[in-house]
Amino acid sequence: MGDRSRLCSVWLGSETGILKGVSVSRKQAFNFCNTSHLSRDQEVRALCWGDPAESELLVGSVDGTVKTFSTEKGAFTESRRCGDPAEGCFTGLAALSGSALLTCGESGTVRVWREDSSEPVTELDAGKNVCRMRQSPVDQHKVATGGKENGLKIWDLERPEKSVFTAKNLRDDWLDLRRPHWVRDMAFIPDSDKVVTCTGYHQVHMFDPSSPQRRPVLEAEYGEYPLTTLSLPAAGNMVVVGNTHGQIAMLDLRKGLVRSCLKGLAGGVRWLQCHPSQPVVASCGLDRFLRIHSLEDRKLLHKVYLKSRLNCLLLASRDLEDGGGATEGEGVSQEVKEEEDEVWDTMEQVGEAEEKPKRKTTEEEEEPQKKSKKKRKKGQD
């Protein structure tokens, strides 16, 4: 299993609780889980790297546990309880220095966990109905939260008493009616203090905490359906967003205009991520496909069917076409083992069902009737 995991450059979490790894270079997919104990309580809702070397993967499940998966060994090495299922699913998961762990649930409770402690060392309340928590790629102690009727907030984990920045609601519309807000995802813009968000009302907003203005410095709209996720490409000045109807678009952050759209999706987009160094974006969602598009010519580069509804994905920082240092002679199986096959293989045989006799077709029923008619005719003659 270690050889397989080293090949994978894309990791995905599914509703069935299976961690999936995909090798783009070899066009192979692998399942990493104990298929004999699958349940919806193990549904994967969050993924993140556990260390800068990307040798460990942190997997957040619906039941409040965070599992550590070793990409070198190809197995789960640790599991710890980091939340209560009654507080909702994980909406954010991140690693801190010193083997510390950062979690956030739908209830809005953000916690910092140490490896040697079963209780959180830091805890803050980000408000109710939190949809996403993101960690700053520059300062690991800075995080952003937001949700339904819960505007964007930026927190400093070293000073958790009060948020560093709290966004102000949008101005009333032309009828002087309050405009609702629903932050679905956000991202820190590199080399600046700005944060971009997408909302459930098909809006894209950019905030600048360094300015005295707490309302968005840029407002844009895309489509007519709720936006669910976003990601920033390596090129900068652009943002890629996806919505509930399988539409993905690139927006210019300087003018707020839609530059291009990516096609080929058939279901709602639950997660997308741009590669940190290559001009590609990976997406997954309800249609059970992993798709990788080029951001330069908008072509679909790779498409992999994974047989489960997918919640989240994580890209490795290395080249996607890189085989992970494995050679052809390492005996990696060329066959993609799907979870349904593994489940059937591990089930006990209760007993062979008796085969029901096949019903005779109309032709078979007509043949004996014809023979009986011929016999009657001969007897009359």
UniProtKB/TrEMBL annotation:
InterPro entries: WD40/YVTN_repeat-like_dom_sf, WD40_repeat_dom_sf, WD40_rpt, WDR74/Nsa1
Record's subcellular location: Nucleus, Nucleolus
Predominant place of localization: nucleus
SUPFAM superfamilies on file: WD40 repeat-like (SSF50978)
Gene Ontology biological process: ribosomal large subunit biogenesis; RNA metabolic process
CDD domains on file: WDR74
Superkingdom assignment: Eukaryota
Presence of the UniProt keyword Nucleus in the record: yes
SMART domains, alphabetized: WD40
Annotated protein name in UniProt: WD repeat-containing protein 74
Source organism per UniProt: Seriola lalandi dorsalis
